[in-house]
Design brief:
Helix content: 25-40%
Shape: extended
Number of helices: 8
Number of strands: 5
Radius of gyration: 24 Å
Length: about 210
């Protein structure tokens, strides 16, 4: 939810000015948390974004249980009818009778895993890069032409060699080169670690993989 209140400089002399600290304290007392404060969107008002307070639990910090919850979310996606967002997942949990506080906790954990779990990168990029290109920025969601900055930076390098492009996406950055590219794709994943694929591709080219 969002709370729109006058900035302290716009508050009447007899009124109480609302600050990040005061709103945060009142939010916690009401079972909410202050997520962020947008101070530059409106000329005279601040926007306080509030979310339901997520209960602290040892399970939310247990790596094995967090992983199990994430895998449960992935299994739900495979059979979900309709939307597959975390919010849709929360609705499905509520339909199963999971208590509201537990739904909040699970939803909070799942959202955080989009930047932590190995499958998350595929979930973000497969829908983007797996569709046919139209050349239209609005429809594709990204430019299909080679990256201008990289093209300028590579002008002094002779474009006639081998290159390893890790996280290649649509390979639009490799114009003029013969790349061995690698990018995770859950639809074509083989039962082996990702580096096996990279090493296999580099063995077929003139590139020597380096160790980190």
């Amino acid at each position: 939810m969002a709370l729109v209140e006058p900035k302290p400089s716009q508050t009447e002399s007899r009124a109480r000015a609302l600050t990040r600290d005061s709103v945060g304290a009142e939010a916690r007392a009401a079972g909410l948390s202050l997520d962020t404060v947008l101070e530059d969107r409106l000329e005279e008002d601040n926007i306080f974004v509030l979310r339901p307070l997520v209960p602290d639990s040892p399970e939310s910090r247990d790596r094995e249980k967090v992983r199990a919850l994430w895998l449960d979310y992935l299994e739900w996606i495979k059979t979900a009818n309709g939307g597959t967002s975390p919010r849709d997942y929360a609705v499905s949990l509520e339909a199963k009778g999971v208590p509201g506080l537990e739904v909040r906790r699970r939803l909070h954990v799942v959202r955080a895993q989009f930047y932590e779990q190995p499958e998350s990168i595929e979930m973000m990029y497969d829908p983007l890069y797996g569709k046919p290109l139209t050349g239209d920025l609005q429809k594709d969601g990204f430019k299909s032409a080679p990256n201008t900055f990289l093209v300028e930076a590579m002008k002094e390098i002779k474009p006639a060699g081998q290159a390893l492009d890790v996280g290649a996406g649509r390979r639009r950055r490799m114009s003029g080169w013969s790349p061995a590219s690698a990018a995770p794709d859950r639809r074509t994943r083989r039962p082996q670690p990702p580096m096996t694929t990279v090493q296999a591709r580099t063995r077929q080219s003139a590139i020597r993989p380096f160790k980190t």
